[in-house]
Amino acid sequence: MANSPASDGDSALVSAVVEWFEHHERPLPWRSTTPWGVLVSEFMLQQTPVERVWPVWQAWLDRWPSPDSLAQASIGDAVRAWGRLGYPRRAKRLHESAVLIRDHHQGVVPRDEAALRQLPGVGDYTAAAVRAFAFGERSIVLDTNVRRVLTRARAGVSMPTPHLTRSERQDADTLWPPGDGQSARWSAAVMELGALVCTARAPACERCPISDDCAWLAAGQPSEQTARRQPRYEGSDRQVRGLLLARLRSAAHPVAADDLAQLWDDDAQRDRALAGLLADGLVEKNTRGTYRLPGG
Fold first, then answer.
1. Per residue in 240-258, pLDDT tens?
2. Fewest C-beta atoms under 10 Å: which of 102, 149, 274, 288?
3. Is 91 inside a domain boundary?
4. Active-site residue among 19, 22, 25, 42?
């Protein structure tokens, strides 16, 4: 379905943000890399800050510069190289995606949306981001940063809804430039604005290129009625999973259950976390009752 033409105001907003981007774009390495490098970055950047991703991404691409090179490694190697980025299931899904790309796409990251969506761990956002940033195609890239900028500037609301709505996507389709190159550039620009200026907690409105036309700023920056709480990490199952994986990553040999038991006092919680890792395929149990990373 063709997008409706943008209004003069929308065109001015896009132009202002893209012009700002020309002077403030960060030299992020995945902005000048291969489609595989873009795909790896999108997996790693999910819920993880740029400064943590950068060195791991670089080490990953040095070691596995192509889908085929990663596909030849084990899942355990991928989880080990993932380090402490968090959410290690992303490493497993990225490895599975590499295998699928090798076996079904001649080792080349597909540019077709449907083919991208068939890769493990690739949803609407990641498929759109890869099409825009790896292939320069027009796609509606709506991550948290982008949605926050558009919600504030156009709707006058502090934060977007927890889940992307159909009307939000339709409105974005009207705003996005029609040309492939222009659209991809705009996607990167508005994402950068949300990351550096229109931030969640301390927006720098005085440095925003669209502050004069921002509905949220004009309304006096109204806040949300109910603050959103992030799940606590300390003491959570996620923390226990991280401790168990860290021990297995650092081990040259399979680890005994008694060794893992020393990492966390709450037996029930530790067993639950370990069971989850086994179910997710991130850990294997040997016949001797010891544990290791898959293929380790």
1. 999 999 999 999 899 999 9
2. 288
3. no
4. 42
Task: Give the SS3 label for residue 219.
Answer: coil
Residue 29 structure tokens: 């390495």
Q: What is the DSSP letter of 256?
A: -
Total H helices, total E strands in the chain: 15, 2
Question: How distant is the alpha carbon of residue 147 from its chain centre?
Answer: 14
In a domain, 25, yes or no: no
* pLDDT tens, position by position, 170-187: 999 999 999 999 999 999
Tokens at residue 175, please?
A: 């705003």
Contact 215, 152 (CB under 8 A): yes
Give the pLDDT score at 228.
Answer: 57
Residue 252 in any domain: the answer is: yes
Report the length, in residues, of the chain: 296
Nearest C-alpha neighbor of 276 from the set 103, 46, 92, 101: 92
How big is the CA angle at 42 (ends 85 and 125), to the nearest 5 degrees? 125
Tokens of 220: 């006096």
Query: Which residues form the domain of 243?
Result: 237-291
Q: How far apart are CA 41 and CA 57, in angstroms?
A: 7
Written as one string, the DSSP assignment of 53-122 is HHHHHHHHHHH--SHHHHHTS-HHHHHHHHTTSS-THHHHHHHHHHHHHHHHSTTS---SHHHHHTSTT-
Q: Nearest CA to 133 among 7, 45, 52, 20?
A: 45
> Which residues are CB-neighbours of 206 under 8 A, at least 6 positions away?
none
Look up residue 222 and give its amino acid: P
Can you tell me the distance from the alpha carbon of 18 to that of 209, in angstroms, rounded to the nearest whole number? 9
206 annotated active-site:
no
Number of domains present in the structure of the chain: 1
Q: What is the pLDDT of residues 87-131, one digit of tens each?
A: 999 999 999 999 999 999 999 999 999 999 999 999 999 999 999
Residue 247 lies in a domain: yes
Q: Phi and psi for 172 in degrees, rounded to 5?
A: -65, -35
